[in-house]
Specification:
Elements lengths: L1 E3 L7 H6 L7 H13 L10 H22 L15 E11 L2 E10 L17
């Protein structure tokens, strides 16, 4: 199963206007320089951009799961709470830097919006 997540600026000028979200320019320059020194490609299969995209997406999904469950990973507060983490599953996400294989966290709870194995989530 694949899904497509694409965020694009309208033009290169628009890309420069996009907020840096607190990114440290020196840190990014050092990261790119170290990748080049180690012979790591910046783009393409297994390149720096794919690796960063993978880490960013997985970190966001882990944070979302923590928020959903109400406790951190391995926190004793979640023991016998009715819903808990239940491993991870692989998923390929199509991005601007190419397909990225990520690990999506799962929980034991059932979705409340639709029946199990139902594909129709419409109201009617």
């Amino acid at each position: 199963m694949t899904s497509e997540n694409v965020v694009a600026a309208e033009s290169p000028a628009d890309a420069k206007k996009m907020p840096s979200a607190g990114l440290d320019e020196r840190f990014l320059e050092e990261l790119v320089a170290r990748a080049q020194a180690d012979g790591l490609q910046l783009t393409g299969e297994g390149g720096l951009l794919q690796q960063l995209t993978k880490r960013l997406l997985e970190s966001a999904l882990d944070g979302e799961m923590t928020d959903h469950l109400g406790y951190d990973k391995h926190d004793p507060a979640g023991k016998n709470g009715g819903n808990s983490r239940n491993g991870k599953r692989s998923k390929t996400v199509l991005t601007d830097v190419g397909p990225v294989e990520i690990e999506v966290p799962r929980d034991r709870g059932r979705p409340r919006s639709s029946r199990r194995s139902s594909r129709n989530v419409s109201a009617g």
